[in-house]
Amino acid sequence: MAAIRRNESERDATRPGEGLVDRYLAGDAALHDLLTEMGCVLYVHDVDEALTIIDAIGATEMVSGYPVQSLPGMSMVSLIAEEDALDDPTRRTETDAFEGDVRVRRADGTFEWLMVSSSLRSTPDGDRVFGLAQTLRVLKVRHAAQMRQLETDALTGLLSRDAFMRRLMQAMVSSPERVVLAIIDLNAFGQVTDTHGLQVGDELLRLIGGRLAEHFGADLHLSRLGADEFGVCLTSWRSDGEVLALMEQLLEDIRRPIEIGAHVFEMRASVGLTRSTEGVTTTELLRQADVAMTEARRSDVGCLMHTATTASMSEEELGIIHRLTQRLEDELVMWFQPLVNMDTGETVGLEALARWDHPERGILPPGAFLDCVTLGGLSSRLDLWALAATARVSGASTNSGEPIRLSVNVTAEGLRSPQLMPAIRQLRTMGALAPDQLTIELSERDIDDDLKQLAPTLNELRRLGVGLSLDDYGTGFSSLIRLRDLPFTEVKVDRSFVSRITCDHTDWSIVRSTVEMSKLLDLDIVAEGIEDIDTAEALADMACGLGQGYLFAKPAPIEQLAADGYIRLPSWADRVS
Q1: Average pLDDT of the chain?
Q2: Which residue intervals of the chain bear CATH 3.30.70.270?
Q3: Given Cys at both, which of 129, 228, 413, 415 links 379, Cβ 3.0 to 4.6 Å?
Q4: What percentage of the chain reaches a pLDDT higher than 70?
Q5: Domain boundaries for CATH 3.20.20.450 within the chain
Q6: What pLDDT was estimated at residue 103?
Q7: Which residue intervals of the chain bear CATH 3.30.450.20?
Q8: Which range, 81-85, 242-246, 266-270, has the best average confidence (pLDDT)?
Q9: DSSP 8-state assignment for residue 15
C-alpha cells in the first residue's frame, strides 16, 4: 500500500472534499484501467461501525454489480457475507491489517469471491482503511491461461515435456499394464537446420506437430519432448499389431512432402516403443523407448518395440553417445595407415582412421566407439569431421616426391547428408585437397539397401574427380552388381579372405579371382589385413597392386609415420594436430 501513500507536503496540498482515493492517486486513469483489467478494486472505507465506503476505483461493477458512483456511502458490512466479515479480529494482523478471502454479495444477490488485503492509515481526515480486492474469478482465469501456457509447447501446440511426463506418470499409477510409450526422432533434422537455418527447422517442426496432433485423443497424448523428438503416450491396452500400425501411420504422416517456401522436404523418422509394467519408473520407461528408437534408427527399420535385445545397450554405451554428441569434434583425432605398392614397398596412400583421445582412458580404437556413433545418429557428423581432418594433412608426399592419395571412410548416412558435396567442393575451392587425391571408401554392407538413392551422389563425386573404393568386398550381397552399376575406381578385399589365403584354397581362389576381375574392369585392387610375409608374397604372386596391414605399418599419427620414414611432410607439419 506504500504506492498510494504520499509525503506530508503532498498530503497537505490535497483539496478538502476531494475523494480520498483520487486525492492519493491524483485521478490516475492508467492505474484505473490496469485495475479494471486485473479484476481489482482499490477502495477506502471509514472505521465506523458500518465500515462506510468513502471511495473506490477499478473493476467495481465486475466485482459488486453496482455502478461506481453508487458505492460511496454504502456499508462494507452489508456487502460482505457475515462469516467473512472484515472486522473479524481473528483475521487481522498485529498492524491492524486484514488479509484473506471474502465473499461480496452482488447487486443481483449472487456472491463473488475476493482476495482482500487492507490496512489502517492515518489521513488528514482521520483514520481510514485502504484496501485492495481482486476477484478470484479473474485469478482463476489467469491461472488457467498460465497453466495452459506451461502445459503447451509454444512451437507445435502439443503438450510440453513437463505436462506429458505428468500424464504419463498418472497413467502408469492408475493402469501401468495398459500404458505404451513411443519416442519419435526425426532423422537428419540437424542437417536441415544446418543447411536451411533455424527458422525453416522451426516451421518444419510446427507442421509435423500439426500432422501428429490429428491423432490426439482421450487415450493418446502427444508432446514435443526435445528439439526434434516427439513423445506418444497410449493409455489404453492395444495389441502390438495395433500399436505398430498406428506408429506406421504417424511415420507416414511425417514422410509426406512438406513445402516451405521454395523447398520441399521429405522427412524420415525412427520410433522406439515400450510397454509399461508393474513397478517400472517413468525414467526407466523413457530409457527403454530411447534405446529402442536408437536401435530402430541404426538398423533403419522405422519402428521397433523394446525387447531384451535392445535392452542390452548398456549405460556405458548411452554415456558414450551422450559424450560424443557433446565433444565429437574436440576429442576425436585422425590417425593414418599406409597403403603400400606391393611391388616396390613404397607408401603411395594413407587411409584416415578415427581415434578417440579420451581425457581419462587415452587413445581408444574405433571398436570402442564407432557402434555408438551409429546408434547415436552421429555418422554423418563424423564423416564431415573426417573429411576436414584429412584435408589438414594434404601436402604430404611419397618418399619419391609424388602427392600422396588420402582415403576417408564415409557411411551411407554421410552420403545422404546435404552437407557432403558442399564440403568437398569447399575443400577444392580452398585448395586444401585436390579431388583426384581423395578417395572415399564405402562399405559394401553399408550401401546394400541404398543403391538408387546413393547413385546420383556417387556419380557427382566421380565427376569431381574423387575416387570411390568399395570396402569389405565380398562380405555383402551381389558384389558384381555393385561394380557394374556404380562408378567405383577401387576394390578392397576384406581381411577375412586375405588372412586365410595361405591356408585355405577357397579363400585363395576368391582373392585371386577378385584381383583378375579388377584388372579386367580397370579397377585398383587393395588387399586388407596383411600381417605376415607369406601372405604378402602370395598376393604379390597374384599381381595384387596395393596392400595394407600391420606387416607394413600400424595406424599412427601423421607425424609418427613421417618420423618412421613412410612419407614426407611439408614444412607446416609441426602445425598438424
Answers
A1: 81
A2: 152-313
A3: 413
A4: 82
A5: 379-555
A6: 83
A7: 2-141
A8: 266-270
A9: P
The answer to whether the CB of 296 falls within 8 A of the CB of 272 is: yes
The 10s digit of each residue's pLDDT in 19-35 is: 445 554 445 567 777 78
User: Is residue 404 a contact partner of residue 393, using CB atoms and an 8 Å limit?
Assistant: no
> Across the strands, what pairs with 263?
260
Query: HSE on the CB side for 57, CA within 13 Å?
Result: 19
pLDDT at 146: 58
CATH class of 379-555: alpha beta
Q: Which triple of cell numbers denotes residue 496?
A: 577375412
Nearest to 418 by CA among 199, 95, 236, 189: 189
Please report, as a single letter, which amino acid is at residue 518.
Answer: S
Q: Is the pLDDT of residue 347 over 90?
A: yes
- Grid coordinates standing for 319? 554415456
Q: Is CATH 3.30.450.20 the classification given to domain 2-141? A: yes
Q: Which of 451, 525, 532, 536 is nearest to 494 (CA)?
A: 525
What is the Cα–Cα distance from 165 to 159, expressed in whole angstroms? Answer: 9
DSSP letter, residue 109: S
pLDDT in tens, 531-558: 999 999 999 999 999 999 999 999 999 9
pTM of the model: 0.53
Q: What confidence score (pLDDT) does residue 85 get? A: 57
Task: Report in angstroms the alpha-carbon separations of 21 from 43, 54, 66, 98, 424.
Answer: 7, 9, 18, 19, 75
Residue 407 CA to residue 353 CA, distance in Å, equals 9
